[in-house]
Sequence to fold (316 residues):
Amino acid sequence: MTPRIRLVLSLLVVLFGTFGSAGAADDSVRVIVDADTANEIDDVYAIVRALVAPEFRVEGLTSAHFTRSTKPNDTVHRSQVINEQILDAMGLRDSMPHPVGADRSMTAPTKPVDSPAARLIIERAHAGGPDDKLVVFALGACTNLASALVLDPSIEPKVVFAFIDGDYKNGRWGPGIFNWKNDIHAVKAIFESNVEYIHMPARSVSVEMELSKKDVDMHMKGRGGVWDLMVNRWETFPRTAKSQKKTMWDVALIEAVLRPKLATPVVVGAPIIHNAGKVEQFPDNPRRVKVFEAIDAQGMQNDFWEAMDAAIQKTK
Fold:
């Protein structure tokens, strides 16, 4: 069984192995990263982690909004700007699809917000099949993912959606913190579908994944390109400019999928989502989803820096 097929089956079984040998093109997993990049700094670090992973074949970087409004707003365009800066810094802008996403939240689970990002997800989903699924990481509001699914339900067996936010602790689902609140209708659309789904709880699990400014400077400062962009993002973003440590929520999701040994997954019944603050427990729900109930934060941190160091070496 190839590493790619193991990932496809990851919602049905608990994975304890890792992906196969780096650079093995036949075993690479097709990926799109969808991010509300302008909202935080951890999106940038997660995006770069995915882009440098030889186990991933990243087929697109799409932008997400970060507002609860169903009216058009500029937050997605702010994310788009930073996505393009990342690709410029890595020399990928001309070769990596990077369409803009939805500029608002869905008004209902059945009402998609059409966008170039949603259309790319649909296109790339159809480029594979049941044994070559497209993994779509949602690092912000999942509007683009849900919209793609509603626009074209036939992609359902061809994708795996991986998302971060709503809590899961001691066998119970908890409410959303940020991403869920930014488009709860999109969340409902995904949970009420049969799409293969991987969930990283934020409040109780990914909160453990941290990086220090000391390590950021030691590994990346003065290296040029995207490395200095990452340092600069830390130093200029208001909420982290004076911080010596930062929770890397989104990096935890990327690492958990890349390195299953660094996370503890369980397959459970999906909750019934009433709104962002209220979820109903349904352990016997036939709709099964995979959720990480713990991570090895130190192992993830070590793996992150090993990947960065290797990528930096390649740019010399």
